[in-house]
Design brief:
The complex is a heterodimer of chains A (577) and B (349). Chain A has 577 residues and is of the alpha+beta class. In chain A, 52% of the residues lie in helices and 19% in strands. Chain A has helices spanning 2-10, 15-83, 88-96, 119-127, 130-135, 178-185, 223-227, 232-246, 284-332, 342-353, 369-376, 378-396, 419-434, 466-482, 496-508, 511-522, 540-552, 556-568, and strands at 105-109, 115-116, 140-142, 146-147, 154-164, 168-177, 195-200, 205-210, 220-222, 252-258, 261-269, 276-283, 359-366, 400-406, 409-415, 452-459, 487-490, 528-530, 535-537. In chain A, helix 14 packs across helix 15. Helices cover 46% and strands 18% of the residues of chain B. In chain B, the strands form two sheets. Chain B has a seven-stranded mixed beta sheet, sandwiched between helices. In chain B, strands 7, 8, 9, 10, 11, 12 and 14 form a seven-stranded mixed beta sheet that branches. The chains are: A alpha+beta (577), B alpha/beta (349).
């Protein structure tokens, strides 16, 4: 958890990835919506054109079917005319011999209007006024569809003129099931959508031939009643279409909507049925249904693709993140103590200071660390570094950044509620560090006490940037060391001279000189901290001892030996409270 | 966990794809509603040794069908047949009728009279009955097959033509001339009913062929959707918007009642009303000396009576020469109201 928090101080915001992903997703969905919209419009336009074409073709097909029926009737009448019959009875007899494979009934009407047919057919002719239709045959005519009494089904009767007995003129008739016409007109494709009707222009009566609703086939309707369902905006066009038909025009197209369904409608006249038209109607969605189905499959495919891509990208991102985190851990943390390394600290510290909160920067230096290494070995030294960093982290880690600055030097940058609070924390750290026990066969807790020297500086009171802040803290640390170690000092509590000279003194020092000073202080028997004054009060005796050593100018090698001896002899004691 | 999640998403997508394709197939499936159907009830005095005739009607609770059943009953009694009847409670419940057909066959029906709820779906059952050699007679509605013996019903196209003929005659009767520029309004009770559409088509057909060219039908056909109050409002619209309105035609009982009521309430004695069925409103107009009105009465009693007659004849192998008999309509107006035929039909209804 702490690591995560630390990382946040030095990492870029991960949310940027998700924001990018969401933006990409929105762009993608927007593009898809645009695509669908364009596709739908394209289909709609295409359908309107195509349905018009199909209507034309189907009406032509229907007309051809009717023509085929009338032509075969006409052929029979021509053959009979050519045979030169004298008697209508002979004609009827010949007609009755025709095989009844394609039609329901056959008969003849002579020039006097005498009908040669069954009694039932005669009744039917009278009922439906079919003699009038016969008289219209020039050379053929077709009755309106009617329900046959004899067959119980809707039928049509086709009449054709026959010449007999030199100049007499009669009419033969063939009655077909209306269903036959439906069967011819029916199309395999668009079976449930295409509607084929016969329409009488004057009455606007419609009889359905083919349609999605089988119940409606052979049934009657009226265009004016049908028109009631047409959208208001299209009604005028519909009436205009009816009027053009009424005026005898043929091949007229019409487009209108019923609710949300767009229809294309087309009519063409039927040559054998004056005043009658073949009307074909297709809802535009009938044609687009297949394309829409394809579109839906494409959409599903895209959705699957999108989900797959998102899952893949997210997984790859997470994998990369994990690897990056590992690398970051390696690159920003000190491998031994697991606290930030110097580079990471600088970065994190800049971020923390950028928040402009009051902070404290504290430099820690383990007193006489080198001697530990020399006395107990590097493993013990490493152990001490780990234990020391743990102690520091435990106290300052919650609100600050802990870093190993190099060797036995640690630095902490922490939020500072008050100087007193940080001082308390430093005291606690002093106690905790004093209690550090090394796990080493050569070590006994009587040998010596672990201590540290620290220098603190405040942000922004002492310095308003990291560089200067570090200098201030370093100065304070220097002064602590100068004053006998095992303690801490605040930069703002230093004398002006110390503040001014510290830098120059430090600059003048070299590592050996520092070591000399450390040795002097570490040899002190009793050191104590005047914690009330927030400054280190070095035991005079120790200081004097240190001074004397220093004054003696003992060579470095000698000093080292002395240190070893003194440490082993447990010369350092816990400072008095 | 992730695998389960991915599998779940994949399953949803696959089922979505399957669902999409299945949707198109399901679209054309016909809605099949089957309700409970009542048992057959004896209609005539049941006597042993007499042939059993089973009658299956469309609607059990309907005054129209009661008249048909009356015809069946009277013929059954007259011809000494055991007649049982039942029917559905919904005019589209062809599956219910299918059940009734099977029951009738299980009960060894000697003849079946059927008013099919669905001309297409019940055709195989009708053919099956015919193949078994059992006389099958249809009433009111014909089937999409010729495997039946005979059908008795009103040819509504002809009924519509007759209504138009009556309208023209009545307009002449009240003094309109061929040169007059007059118009006729139409109101239907439903736009999808085949019966109504045929009556409308028949009316238009006759009118376009026989009415003077200056006599026009208002193209704005009103549809009251079976609502008589709405029908009244729509009639007022016609009266108010078309000053030369001289005739009103109602294709069935509902609109006819609405037309009669409104014309009566508005005191428009100059408007001829032609409709169907003999409602109180129509009766008031016909019986009034000031108004001109006529109505077309179906002979549904005859449908039932003739159906039993035909089944009985088929028992003796007397096969009818025709497959369809139009029972026709009778025109009721001031002149014909007290005719024997009209009174007879009115009595039956």
């Amino acid at each position: 958890m702490k690591n995560q928090k630390d990382l946040k101080l030095i990492q870029q915001d991960n949310r940027s990835f998700y924001v990018t992903l969401i933006i990409c997703l929105i762009v993608f969905l927007g593009a898809i919506a645009l695509l669908i919209n364009s596709f739908n419009r394209l289909i709609s336009t295409h359908d309107q054109h195509l349905s018009g074409e199909i209507c034309t073709l189907v009406s032509e097909k229907m007309n051809n079917s009717i023509n085929s029926m009338t032509e075969s009737t006409r052929d029979i009448s021509l053959i009979l005319s050519a045979q030169g019959f004298d008697s209508p009875k002979d004609i009827y007899k010949t007609l009755k011999e025709y095989p009844k494979s394609n039609f329901l009934s056959i008969g003849f009407i002579d020039s006097d209007g005498v009908m040669y047919a069954t009694i039932e057919e005669r009744v039917e002719f009278e009922k439906w006024n079919l003699m009038e239709t016969a008289s219209m045959a020039d050379p053929v005519s077709i009755s309106i569809p009617y329900r046959s009494t004899v067959y119980g089904q809707s039928v049509i009767t086709i009449f054709s003129r026959i010449e007999y007995a030199n100049s007499k003129q009669g009419y033969m008739f063939l009655t077909y099931l209306f269903k036959d016409l439906q069967d011819i007109a029916e199309t395999e494709s668009l079976l449930n959508d295409i509607e084929i009707m016969l329409m009488h222009a004057e009455s606007a009566n419609i009889i359905q031939c083919v349609g999605g609703d089988k119940h409606a086939s052979g049934s009657w309707a009226n265009a004016y009643l049908s028109m009631q369902t047409v959208n208001k905006s299209d009604k005028e066009a519909y009436i205009n279409w009816l009027n053009r038909m009424l005026n005898g025009e043929s091949n007229i197209g019409l487009s209108y909507s019923v609710g949300k369904t767009f229809y294309s409608q087309y009519c063409s006249d039927i040559p054998g049925m004056p005043g009658w038209y073949v009307v074909v109607r297709i809802p535009s969605n009938a044609l687009s249904a297949t394309m829409k189905s394809f579109r839906n499959y494409v959409l599903i495919f895209l959705a699957v693709l999108l989900i797959t891509v998102i899952v893949l990208i997210t997984n790859m991102y997470r994998l990369t993140q994990r690897e990056n985190r590992m690398l970051e851990q390696l690159s920003i943390h000190d491998p031994l103590t697991k606290v930030f390394n110097r580079r990471a600290f600088d970065f994190a510290a800049e971020n923390l200071l950028a928040r402009n909160k009051e902070c404290a920067l504290i430099f820690f230096d383990i007193d006489f660390f080198k001697q530990v290494n020399d006395q107990f070995g590097h493993d013990a030294g490493d152990q001490l570094l780990v234990l020391f960093s743990d102690a520091i982290k435990k106290i300052f880690g919650e609100h600050g950044i802990v870093s190993r600055f190099g060797g036995d030097e640690f630095v902490v940058l922490t939020e500072m509620p008050s100087v007193e609070k940080i001082t308390q924390m430093l005291n606690k750290a002093t106690d905790d560090v004093h209690n550090i026990k090394l796990d080493n066969e050569n070590y006994t807790d009587r040998d010596f006490m672990i201590s540290f020297s620290a220098g603190s500086a405040r942000f922004p009171s002492d310095a308003d940037n990291l560089s200067n802040l570090k200098k201030c803290a370093d100065t304070a640390l220097y002064e602590t060391k100068e004053n006998g170690r095992n303690g801490y000092m605040w930069f703002h509590n230093l004398s002006e001279a110390a503040k001014a000279n510290a830098g120059s003194n430090k600059k003048a020092q070299n590592p050996s000189e520092n070591m000399t000073i450390h040795v002097k202080n570490s040899l002190s028997k009793n050191s104590s901290c005047d914690r009330n004054n927030n400054s280190v009060t070095i035991n005079k005796e120790i200081r004097e001892a240190g001074d004397s050593i220093s004054a003696n100018g003992t060579p470095k090698k000698v000093v080292k030996k002395i240190i070893r001896k003194k440490v082993i002899r447990k010369k350092i004691v816990k400072p008095k409270e | 966990m992730k695998r389960i999640l991915y599998s779940f998403v994949l399953c949803i997508l696959l089922s979505g794809m399957i669902g999409c394709s299945a949707l198109d197939q399901d679209k054309n499936k016909k809605e099949e509603v089957s309700s409970e159907v009542p048992d057959f009830i004896p209609l005539t005095t049941i006597k042993e040794g007499q042939p059993d005739i089973y009658v299956i009607i469309k609607l059990m609770d309907s005054s129209y069908w009661k008249v048909i059943i009356n015809g069946v009953h009277d013929a059954g009694e007259a011809l000494s047949c055991n007649v049982y009847y039942s029917g559905t409670n919904n005019e589209t419940d062809w599956k219910g009728q299918q059940k009734l057909i099977n029951t009738a066959l299980e009960n060894n029906a000697k003849g079946i009279i059927l008013a099919p709820d669905d001309s297409i779906e019940l055709s195989p059952d009708i053919e099956h009955i015919h193949e078994l050699g059992i006389p099958i007679v249809l009433v009111d509605t014909i089937a999409n097959t010729d495997a039946f013996d005979i059908c008795y019903m009103t040819d509504n196209l002809l009924a519509g033509q007759k209504a138009a003929e009556e309208m023209i005659n009545q307009l002449y009767n009240i003094g309109h001339k061929e040169s007059d520029s007059i118009s006729v309004g139409i109101m239907v009770g439903q736009s999808t009913s085949q019966t109504i559409n045929e009556r409308l088509a028949g009316f238009y057909r006759y009118w376009s062929a026989n009415a003077p060219k200056t006599w026009t039908i208002i193209s704005d056909i009103k549809n009251c959707n079976g609502n008589i109050d709405l029908g009244g409002t729509l009639t007022e619209d016609l009266i108010n918007n078309y000053p030369n309105l001289c005739g009103l035609y109602g294709t069935n009982n509902g609109p006819t009642r609405a037309l009669c009521s409104t014309v009566l309430s508005k005191g428009r004695t100059d408007i001829v009303v032609i409709g169907f069925d003999f409602s109180d409103e129509m009766k008031n107009l016909i019986e009034s000396d000031e108004y001109t009105a006529s109505t077309m009465l179906q002979r549904q009693y005859n449908m039932g009576y003739r159906a039993v007659q035909s089944v009985n004849a088929l028992f003796s192998n007397r096969i009818p020469k025709i497959k369809f008999e139009d029972t026709g309509v009778v025109t009721v107006n001031k002149t014909t109201l007290y005719d024997t035929e009209v009174q007879e039909v009115l009595e039956q209804n």
